[in-house]
Amino acid sequence: MKAYIGVCLIMLTLMVRVSAQGPSIVVTSKELTDTSAPGWVWNAMDAYEDNQLSRGAGRAGGPGGYGAYTFNGTGVAVYVMKAPAVEVDGRVHKVGRLRVLIDGNLKAAVAVSSNDHEYGYRAYAVNGLSAANHVLQLEPDAGWVVVDGIRVIGGPEAPDVSQDGAVGPNPTKVGPPQQILFYGKTQPLVSENTMLFRNSVAGFLNSLNPELVVANLPGDWGPEQVYPRSGTSAIRYSGSSLGGDAYCGMAAYAAHASVTKNTVLTYWILPQQDNGRFVAVDLHCTDGTTLSQTAATDQNGVSVAPGAGHGGRLPTYMWSPVQCIIGNYLAGKTIDAIWIVFARNAAAGGQYRGYIDEITLYNE
To answer: Which end of the chain is more exposed for a tag (fewer CB within 10 A), N or C?
Structure first.
């Protein structure tokens, strides 16, 4: 594949939002809102019994599942069980991270795996929210999660608590804060259909150019209905390879994110046909380096460059996660643009189309 690196027609700067935990929050286990309380909405997260959880049971699930709870208060603390793995229905599942969203905004991605079981782990806590209704959403990521419960702070029914308590048999511990550098769901595209470079690529249909837009879902085109990973929309990409060394880069977002050794890129992708697998998120740095020109690999050891096609692992019409510790390859650099790139070197051409959602940069 011909190098497309170094092409950059857009150099914009966007101040990124960095999340931080608020003032320390004091909780007691007896006031925990457990996972069976009225008001919870659970999807693909099943009841998980363990007598060392605060109420003897929690909720367990993997990527694609979630729990949502509407609370009235100025803060909330989230409690989980840390473990290396959990066994559900005779299957052992590796424990991964917990993504915490409040009012649709990603606040943290907290590692909740450990070598041993640890109960009453306070994975996330925030205070200082407006005294109003807020929606908390908890999502397993890169593995399974066991949610024990939450504690609402400052609500009309929240008691005044004067000292830290324990949840389960062990003292409450606080998870490390996560620094969210960029979250695509809260940012606008640079502009729709902004093409940076292409070779041997046309539009999905003869009357169109290659496309990159925010599509409202469900209800978009396709033989199967597509739902977003979260919210009501996702990025749609499309085009047609004319065969040979075909590639096309589209501008998605402007950014200004300093990469450390602990910086991680994650996103979800849903291809609609084989060619749709040969699309990836690429990161452009101020010195001209792009992620795809490095030796960067994803969680499966496959190159993150679009021409690798994600190793052929992606099913069509299903969301699949992609994760790369970009700090191993771009540490010390500054990301100034996020691209979505198609690349495939094949004799036969063909249409490509699909969706990308929840592009996130964060420091572990």
So the answer is: N
